[in-house]
Amino acid sequence: MRKDVFVPTMVVEIHVPLLPTPGLPDGSHPFPWIEEIEDFLSDLEDQGDVEIFDEGEEDGDVYVFFVTGAGEGNLLAVASRVARLPGVPAGVVAVVSNDEAEEFGLGRRVTLPLPAS
User: Fold this and answer.
1) pLDDT mean over 58-87
2) Model pTM greater than 0.85?
3) For residue 117, what pLDDT is reported?
4) Roughly how many angstroms between the first and final C-alpha of the chain, as a whole number?
5) In this predicted model, which residue has the larger pLDDT, 75 or 54?
6) What is the dihedral of CA 82, 83, 88, 90, to 10 degrees?
7) With b meaning 16 or more CB within 10 Å and e meaning fewer, what string describes 42-71?
8) Which terminus, N or C, of the chain has the lesser number of Cβ atoms within 10 Å?
9) Whole-number Cα distances in Å, 113 to 47, 77, 101
10) How far apart, in whole angstroms, are the C-alpha atoms of residue 54 and residue 12?
11) Prior bond to 30 cis, omega within 30?
């Protein structure tokens, strides 16, 4: 008798330092790059390249975005593209995790952007 084995879903967390964008007009949202990243990831999801696993959220001194629905290499390539978007602060890190993780940042850390191949 065969028993189905549950395999956790891979999730790549994209940790962006929560740094305000310098030189914005008074009253502007200090982190306009959050919406830029959300739009970028939403476009990729619409194209079927990745899935947004969960809504992004603030976690201490970083803002975390979550992607899944592809292999590790593709998910890290997407995270690397996020790190290269105009206005995104330096210091972006990806964390390879899964949907069973109890906290953010517990998986393998990958410095972004990845070197060009």
Assistant:
1) 96
2) yes
3) 62
4) 46
5) 75
6) 170
7) eebeeeebbbbbeebeeeeebbbbbbbbbe
8) N
9) 22, 8, 24
10) 11
11) no
Can you tell me the distance from the alpha carbon of 16 to that of 24, in angstroms, rounded to the nearest whole number?
19
Q: At what angle do helices 32-47 and 72-84 cross, to 10 degrees?
A: 140
Q: What mean pLDDT do residues 63-77 have?
A: 96
**Which 3 state secondary structure label does DSSP give 82?**
helix
Instruction: Give the integer Cα–Cα distance in Å for 42 and 45.
Output: 5
- The CA distances from residue 88 to 4, 8, 20, 30, in Å, are 42, 30, 10, 12
Distance CA 89, CA 10 (A): 25
Which residues are CB-contacts of 77 (< 8 A; sequence separation ≥ 6)?
114
Total Cβ atoms within 10 A of residue 79: 27
Let me know if 4 is exposed, middle or buried by CB neighbors in 10 A (0-12, 13-18, 19+): exposed
